[in-house]
Every structure is written in C-alpha cells, then in structure tokens.
Amino acid sequence: MITETMQNAINQQIARELYSSNLYLAMAAYYSNINLNGFANWMRVQAQEEMVHALKFFDYMISRGAKPLITQINAPKTEWSSPFEAFQDSLEHEKLITAHINDLVNLSIKENDHASNIFLQYFVTEQVEEESTVLDIVTRMKMMENFPGGLYLIDNELKQRKFGA
Ligand code: OFO
Q1: CATH of the domain at 65
Q2: Is the model's pTM score more than 0.70?
Q3: Domain span at residue 143?
C-alpha cells in the first residue's frame, strides 16, 4: 500500500503536470498570435505530452489502490515580451519540475517505497530529455538574436514536431 505522504506528494505532482499542460497551451496561443506557427505547434505538442504525464501519475495512483485527486489549477501566465522570453520561461519551468521529481524520488526512498521509486525513474529520464531539448532551442534562439531570419528557420523546424503518445 502506498503511504498517505506519498499519495499526497503524487497528487501535488498531478496538479503540476496539469499546470504544465496549461502553461504550454498558453504559450501555444501566444506564439500563434504572433504568427510563429512552428513554435505554436511545438508548444501544443508539449501541452499534450504534459497531459500524458499527468495521466501516468493518475493511473499509477489507481494501480496502487489510491485515489488521484483533481484540484484547482492556478492560471498560467498568458503574455510574454518576446518569443525568446517564452521559451526561456519553459526552460525555467522544466528545471522546477526536475527539482520536484527529485524530491519525489527522495521521498520514495525515505518511505521505503520501491514501487514508486521504480515508477519515478521514467520521469527522472524524461526530465533530462526535456531540459536538454528546451535548452538546445533556447541556445539557438539566443545565437540567432541578431539574425532576423533565424527565428523563422527555427520556426520551420519546430513545425515538424508531432505528438506521439
Ligand atoms: Fe515537462 O515534464 Fe512533465 O511537467
């Protein structure tokens, strides 16, 4: 049986994943409105992936005989001062999520919960990938800062991303 402390911590993570999904959808809306449709596509796919993360935690709770709680989710930011600032925010957000995943792993060790520890390893790996992908895009956007066409090159590339859950 999963401990109550672990259940509460996972429920909080479900809320964070749902918040992440909303945040990326808000970013998709921002990019669409400034006609960066590749960036908008990338963020929309990211929003879908975050929903999958939330559902993975949801299903895990059920498989352990616990009840996932769906609570009120804070509204995300909806405006950014530049295309760069929005992507930079997504990098900061992913770093925050990584810290929360690490806290969950630490808690699973403290609670002697091996099943949760194994389950969480997927997210440890996922966060390495997410941070690395976002950092790569942020770095290239920064490099293109003084090259007006650069943003559109990246935008074209980001059009290719597809949701593959
Ligand atoms: Fe972006 O990985 Fe879930 O939140």
Answers
A1: 1.20.1260.10
A2: yes
A3: 4-158
